[in-house]
Design a protein that fits this description.
The structure is a homotrimer. By secondary structure, the first copy, chain A, is α/β, with parallel strands linked by helices. In chain A, 48% of the residues lie in helices and 13% in strands. In chain A, strand 1, helix 2 and strand 2 form a beta-alpha-beta unit.
Chain lengths: 277, 277, 277
């Protein structure tokens, strides 16, 4: 149940060509992505999805979240600004997505220090296994620790420090787990792959991590291989960030250029520039 | 009750000069526009209104929505992320706006496939007729069909396909109906006008349609001719989009340039570039 | 209790060097700023804080707002789109922040014409004194008038017209009061200082005032002198706006350039360009 038990591969566990094919499929099929996400990043997330070729939809009420989840290509549940009102919509969306065979993605924002959402995250995971869990290292560590406090939850944890936790979560829920950071680490409990692209300015723009969760949900709509979906989405954002950083004067121009780069980045260029390990 | 019954005009039903005058009035009088809109597009909508010279205000609670609606120049009700909490604020706002003689605009986002909001939209329309309904073709078709399912609700419907539905709604509620798309089609049940400006990048930025609803509300504050108001707003956004697309590298830079273009576009240039049919 | 009772100083009540030191401390310590703010400006506010070097966190539920407030460097309560759900979270956050000795900042958006939030603002102020109140002149006048209607609440009030009200509020609650406008006027009931920087385009971008409230909260995390904190934040935003306006074609490009300027503005340059009176 730890990283040492993962067999060595010849080359990365996910190929660059396969990841690029996933992005090409998103562009050609424009999957509907139902986002139950936080109010801080909703606009940026929708623009990221539109730039990548997906079709965002955001419905927050318990009365409607189920109906949309049943027909969505993928569903994102992001806990950022969850309240009791939107928590109920999330419960309905996860249940209905699972019932209809639609993949859902959990972004466990700030799980760990905040007990109420930590319980909610676990409740949702137990109600129906997600396709992917995407978070930072601290969130993944907290989600795995079972509330026993056995592991420190520090936002400065590096992704690699959360690999064992990610493998354990992946095996427990039969899902992929994407640990985002300077170098993203992804696993499905069996395979491990790392995305060695990106740029530091991603940390200075709100919603880059959250919109990655939405891109992951878009990719789960076009492939049943959850690790491949999460890798493709992580790679797309990270390579687009490298392009956007060229000539950006700061996080304002970078955020704008990132949307442009997501729109213009061809699958061929992604296959070329993606650095998987 | 259909398009064929609309008499032919000499020239478009709304003149370019009249539309430009409406925009000039918005700039000079800075009407207060009370927006009950969705959380995805709130920031962009406020910036669009500010750039056009209007004064946005967004209040979401049932305790306050009525007080603001009574003093607003125009009220926008957009159903994008409506919940039971904000639905109650919408009911109050529409009632109080109507009581005070203030125009209100309905943007029936995603009406059709989602029954709860479809019922809410009809309830609001029955409680007090709006000045304008603004939606895409699928939403207008769904709103008119009465839930009988007699018409397909497909987001790929072209505006022209919704003209009969728009005319029917316009006559039923005594309002103007703006069907947005590559070429906007607008009617008040008697007159029909089309705005043949715009740019495809509008579809790749979240909130362009929703902020058009807010611009329509701003224009209803300065003219009692609802069709003229809706045409002026649609024309302003569409011509600004043409300007913004020049030199934009993608949807990120386009969205920024669109705000600049709305701010800089003079009524004289609008009167010159507007293509009404 | 009025401006005439404030003794004259040799030079401004806050020094430019001290203000620049506060901004340097924010950059080096990256304080966690818990924002209970409105949905229109959440994204922009988070990006402003990130650009300035602070760490934004936005949690809206009564179940969690207290836990975050206890560990935050500073807490912002902005009433823009408050509902009964978020009002409860605000009550909890203010109580827990006060109990843990954490400074909190009130942004009384639209207090005055809207009685429900005006009562809420007063309830919060009475429950625990804030470090800073930041608003426009009309809001400060309304907050001080006690609901007696003795003073007109007009959004065209100049900051100087609200100075007596600001001094009264500062003395009543033992806090600093920042009245934002073309020239910001700040007081703690004893000292008065004015920030004579800024640019008119700030008024054409939504959230510039609201994000100033968040910057003030960030600065209260690094200094116990609330007037100094409010002055440093006001000066940072105003000088950054002057930089951003250079070469901006309109409010769209200005908003983007403002984020870049906040990111790049060095404390040394701030100390040089800040115009305090």
């Amino acid at each position: 149940m730890d990283a040492a038990s993962i067999p060595a591969h010849n080359g990365p566990a996910v190929s660059r060509a396969a990841a690029a094919d996933v992005i090409a499929s998103v562009r050609s099929s424009a999957p509907l992505v139902h986002c139950l996400t936080n109010v801080v990043v909703s606009q940026f997330t929708a623009n990221v999805l539109l730039a990548a070729g997906a079709a965002p939809a955001m419905v927050h009420s318990a009365q409607e979240a189920g109906a949309l989840a049943r027909v969505a290509g993928g569903v994102l549940v992001n806990l950022g600004t969850v309240t009791s009102v939107t928590a109920e919509a999330m419960r309905v969306a996860v249940k209905e997505a699972a019932g209809a065979g639609r993949p859902w993605v959990l972004d466990p924002v700030a799980v760990g220090p905040l007990p109420w959402r930590t319980d909610l995250a676990r409740e949702l995971l137990e109600s129906a296994p997600p396709a992917v869990i995407r978070g930072n290292a601290s969130e993944i560590l907290a989600l795995d620790s079972g509330g026993t406090g056995g592991r420190g939850v520090d936002s400065t944890d590096a992704p690699e420090a959360a690999l064992d936790a990610a493998i354990a979560l992946g095996r427990r829920y039969g899902c992929a787990v994407a640990v985002s950071g300077p170098e993203d680490v992804l696993t499905d409990g069996t395979r491990v792959v790392r995305v060695a692209n990106g740029h530091l300015l991603l940390q200075r723009v709100t919603g880059t991590g959250c919109s990655l969760g939405a891109l992951v949900a878009a990719c789960t709509a076009v492939t049943g291989d959850a690790l491949l979906a999460a890798t493709a989405a992580s790679g797309l954002l990270a390579v687009a960030a490298e392009i956007a950083a060229t000539g950006s004067a700061g996080p304002g121009t970078f955020a704008v250029a990132l949307i442009d780069a997501l729109y213009e980045l061809s699958p061929d260029r992604l296959a070329r520039d993606l650095n998987l390990r």
